[in-house]
Amino acid sequence: MGISKRTTYSICRRVENGNSVERQVGSGRPARKMSQKKREALVNQSHGKFGVSLRKIGPKFKIDKKYVSNILKENNVKLATRKFAPKYSEKQKLEQKRKLRHLSESAFSPQMELK
Q1: How far apart are alpha carbons 76 and 78 in whole angstroms?
Q2: Which portions of the sequence form the region Disordered (predicted)?
Q3: What number of H helices and E strands is found in the chain?
Q4: Is 16 helix (H, G, I), strand (E, B) or coil?
Q5: Distance (Å, rounded) from C-alpha 80 to C-alpha 92?
Q6: Element (H or E) spanning 66, and its range?
Q7: What are residue 63's phi and psi, to 5 degrees?
Q8: Which residues partner with 50 through β-bridges?
Q9: Residues 76, 107: contact at Cβ < 8 Å?
């Protein structure tokens, strides 16, 4: 079944003594990998800045990007992604086509002589 004898006997002993078999709150290893001071530094470094990458923040603090994400979620920090503007508006595109047509007609016209 995949359960060791020691675990089975330990559970039986707990039941015989009248203790609970359920996991108690606070038992086990604490999930803190970073001190509170470092967590605040991480939050301050990424709060309100555009284009901050979890992949770049993680190695600075020697933690995984998923853990960075969890810390930021706990502190209600949403990373803002950089918004890129379009290179040209529709009006600019039409103007470029007109100018290019004019340039090509003047440059490659048969009246033009090469010297």
Answers
A1: 6
A2: 20-44, 90-115
A3: 5, 0
A4: helix
A5: 29
A6: helix 65-74
A7: -135, 165
A8: 80
A9: no
Residue 82 makes CB contacts below 8 A (sequence gap 6+) with 50, 51
Q: What share of the chain is helix, strand, coil (3-state, %, to 5)?
A: 50, 0, 45
Which tokens is 82 given? 């950089």
- The torsion angle over the Cα atoms of residues 33, 34, 40 and 44, rounded to 10 degrees, is -80
pLDDT band at 113 (very low <50, low <70, confident <90, very high): low
50 in helix, strand or coil?
Answer: strand
Say how far apart CA 15 and CA 30 lie, in whole Å. 26
Alpha-carbon torsion, ordered 58, 63, 64, 69, to 10 deg: -70
Whole-angstrom distance, CA of residue 67 vs CA of residue 64: 5
The pair phi, psi for residue 114, each rounded to 5°, is -90, 135
Q: What is the pTM of this model?
A: 0.48
